[in-house]
Design goal:
It is built from five helices and no strands. By secondary structure, the protein is mainly α.
Length: 120
């Protein structure tokens, strides 16, 4: 993710709460330049903090968590399973917290005679 894309995403979601582009840019830049974070880590850290502050809902992929924590996929998956068990024991639905997804498949279409041969 580029700095500009991260800033655009944050502004689009959190601007309505009074977080202007200048503030978000400053925070994002601080994470990258002063803390040594990648743009993704700084972006995800801001998403986490801003969601907590505003009550917004954010989703984080396993890859996001791996990059933020430095932990392996296996460690994260073990923690997720442990959390699911704890949630079930507490009478909560773990699917409200952990949403399994399948990666999108990429389809390539080939039209030997050109796209004009395609008739839906």
């Amino acid at each position: 993710m580029t700095f500009q894309a991260a800033l655009d995403n944050l502004s689009g979601k959190y601007g309505k709460y009074g977080y202007d582009r200048e503030f978000l840019s400053s925070q994002l830049r601080d994470g990258v330049m002063n803390e040594g974070f990648s743009v993704n880590v700084a972006y995800n850290g801001l998403r986490m903090v801003l969601a907590e502050q505003t009550g917004e809902h954010e989703l984080f992929s396993i890859e996001d968590v791996m990059e933020i924590t430095g932990e392996s996929r296996e460690t994260i998956m073990e923690r997720i399973e442990q959390c699911k068990e704890e949630l079930m024991a507490a009478g909560e639905n773990p699917d409200s917290y952990f949403i399994p997804t399948e990666p999108a498949t990429k389809k390539t279409l080939f039209f030997p005679g050109g796209a004009s041969d395609f008739k839906p």
